[in-house]
Design goal:
With 147 residues, the chain is α+β, with helices and mostly antiparallel strands. It is 16% helix and 31% strand. It has helices at 12-26, 29-36, and strands at residues 46-50, 54-60, 69-74, 77-84, 103-110, 121-125, 128-134. Strand 6 (121-125) and strand 7 (128-134) form a beta hairpin.
Length: 147
């Protein structure tokens, strides 16, 4: 038998699930819906990474159309905003469980002041928004030959 060091952080997701179940059982769904709506119901998850020529932001936006998304740059702040609307085909009382989040969202990212905002490109495909922010010439990595 080997000894395994106890890590209390490993138990956090289990504790979170138990607390969530407690609230779901104790409060009716309508009361929780009002609480969820406070301050926005959801924030899409993003990945941000660098390539040789650009910084790329990928955001998961399932169920949205490109017309539902707005991307703005004001000063050095890039904002992605939109709204995922609820499915009104099914009546509330017919749900057993409703875990997907709905509502308005807004994510903001600070850009370096040297970015040329007119060269930013955005593409939306299969529920994933990809925003490419080109790097300025002086920020691109340069190879230096060793003599």
């Amino acid at each position: 038998m080997s000894l395994v060091r106890w890590n209390p952080l490993r138990e956090m997701p289990v504790l979170q699930n138990r607390i969530n179940r407690l609230f779901e059982d104790f409060f009716p769904e309508t009361a929780l819906d009002e609480f969820k709506g406070f301050g926005g119901a959801w924030n899409p998850v993003v990945d941000i990474f660098d390539t040789d020529n650009a910084t790329v932001i990928k955001a998961d936006l399932p169920g949205l159309k490109k017309e539902d998304i707005s991307i703005n740059v004001e000063g050095n702040i890039l904002s992605i905003a939109g709204e995922r609307k609820t499915d009104d085909e099914v009546k509330k009382e017919n749900y057993y469980r409703r875990e997907r989040s709905y509502g308005m969202f807004r994510r903001e990212f600070t850009l370096p002041s040297t970015i040329e905002t007119d060269k930013i490109k955005a593409e939306f495909k299969d529920g994933v928004l990809k925003v490419e922010i080109p790097k300025p010439e002086e920020k691109k990595p340069k190879s230096i030959a060793v003599h």
